[in-house]
Every structure is written in C-alpha cells, then in structure tokens.
Write a structure and sequence with these properties.
By secondary structure, the chain is mostly beta strands. The protein contains no helices and four strands. The chain has a domain of about 40 residues. A hairpin with a 4-residue loop joins β3 and β4. The N and C termini lie far apart (about 25 Å). About 10% of the residues have low confidence.
C-alpha cells in the first residue's frame, strides 16, 4: 500500500559505491515530505536524499 508515495522507474549506468554514488540505481520513490529514496541493487542498499539534497 503506497498512499502518499510517488514511484518512478530509472535505469542508470553502473557507477561507484561510496555514499551518494550508485553501482546500479534502478528505482526511485519520493515520499510526502519530498525525501527521495533510490534503490541501488549493485550495492544492496536504499539511499535516502533529504529535500535539501543531503544524503541520509
């Protein structure tokens, strides 16, 4: 159930593995507070970006 969420698909070329970098970003979600969540399957993680662009 995804009330308050907007989903969009993204395909990206492989990049790096440090914080704020992605090895294979493939999906983005934005919550009602405008936080951005990026699924990075190459690094087995989800990264959260705050509305001001800060990585959390």
């Amino acid at each position: 159930h995804l009330d308050g969420w907007r989903l969009m698909l993204l395909y990206a070329v492989p990049l790096l593995s440090g914080g704020g970098q992605f090895q294979f970003a493939h999906c983005i979600a934005v919550d009602s507070a405008s936080n951005i969540y990026v699924a990075d399957s190459g690094n087995d993680r989800i990264q959260k970006l705050a509305p001001v662009g800060r990585l959390e």
